[in-house]
Amino acid sequence: MELLNGKEKMKREISIYFILFAILSLLGGVMFGILGAFQFLMPVFFNWIPFIKSRPLHVSLVIAWIFLSSVGGIYYYLPKYCNVTLFSGKLQKIHLWIFVITGFGVIISYLVGYFGGREYWEFPPILAIPIIISWLLFGINYFKTVFTKTEPWPVYLWMWGTGIFFFLFTYLESNLWNFPYFRDHLVRDITVQWKSNGSLVGSWNMLIYGTAIFLMVRISNDDSIAKTRLAFIMYFLGLTNLIFNWAHHIYIVPNAIWVRYIAYGISMTELLILGKIIWNWKRDLTKALRDFHILAIRFIVASDVWILLNLTLSILLSIPAINIFTHGTHLTVAHAMGSTIGINTMILIGSCLFLIPDITKTQFNLKQSFSISIGFWIMNIILLFFWVALIFAGYHKGYMVVEDKLVFQVMMAKIQPYLAVVAYTGIGIFAGILMIFAPVLKLIKDYIR
């Protein structure tokens, strides 16, 4: 028994390191995002790390936050709550070290100006190899673990497995540009690149939304949430969007017209999700307010509000007549930020607030809970101003390009006030995140020491 407890503790410690590096990645990613926002206003601002470096640092660190926190949670939740034994703690360790060492390699390559990749993955392509290996190890560990489960899987196990498989598939796809067959044909290259990136976002959404459903099950102690017919219908709807929804990114690419029709049709199926959210709004709101004192639940509730806002924006951006004005503008950035911060980060913070006290066996004291609560409100309120400023900047930019035919310099000068709001509200979002994670980092530090 003592030996088993020692092994269990070892696994928990590895999970907590995933979360520690995830939080540090988020803080670094937001800092570089703020730096990039001010460099958009003043190109000579902080020339030691120019915009060409600050932007990929921001993107890569935020993506690292998403994956590290998702994967760390899954590694902990599987043996602790899913009635299975993790296939290999050794593979889990190797996964962590490959991820961390590769992450440092990515950061260093950006800082010294050594690029070579594409959107989201602007680091040298050679660093894609350890990333692929780490996800293969994760996939082996996950499926070897869950295939021992004899009873029907709850929907979140399906979602986690789907996210792992499709990340590997789409990440390999996003590196096809290294082959001349794709790189030397412009239309083919753009199509595959944006197809893979669109589906890749869907893959990490599967990991995150599966985590959200898991948290709702654990906090409510109601397993039926993850086993209903409706839960699986929504899962398959999300899977369909993951596979086909990408094509609205390439309306402007001269592809076959049926590709655009399918993309538009699939995008409009999101109206079903939107309708369900609105239909259940009153019931969900009543239940949420009842459980609002639970810190993790607050962030799940916030993500639900942001899903409503951002899904509405996403559906509008998928309409071709609107997409021609918005494609490549700050409206696209608003959608990306609303998803990454408002939905994904809120869910993952909720996971951290559930997981860390569970690992450390230490609850947040009154002062720490107050800090997290204040950070929650600061982050969400300021994020709303940040999001709206991006929408207005994108709307005016799109209109000025399509209708007014303004040159780039004049157009950018006209949207400067909105970009200033984005930069300064970014500082407020960072302050809210710091207030949330300061108590979490304290628990982690005490546990490790």
List the helices and strands and how they pair.
Layout: H1 2-41, H2 51-81, H3 89-111, H4 128-146, H5 155-174, H6 180-183, H7 186-220, H8 229-244, H9 257-268, H10 270-279, H11 281-290, H12 295-317, H13 320-326, H14 330-360, H15 366-404, H16 408-414, H17 416-448
Number of strands: 0
Query: H/E order of the elements?
Result: HHHHHHHHHHHHHHHHH
Quickly give the CATH architecture of the largest domain. Up-down Bundle
- Mind telling me the CATH superfamily name of the largest domain? Cytochrome c oxidase-like, subunit I domain
Number of helices: 17
Q: Radius of gyration from the CA trace?
A: 22 Å
**Proportion of residues in β-strands:** under 5%
Percentage of helical residues? Answer: over 70%
CATH structural fold name of the largest domain: Cytochrome C Oxidase, Chain A
Commentary on this structure:
- The protein is mainly alpha-helical and 449 residues long.
- The chain folds into 3 domains: 1-148; 154-268, no CATH class; 280-449, Cytochrome C Oxidase, Chain A, CATH 1.20.210.10.
- It contains 17 helices and no strands.
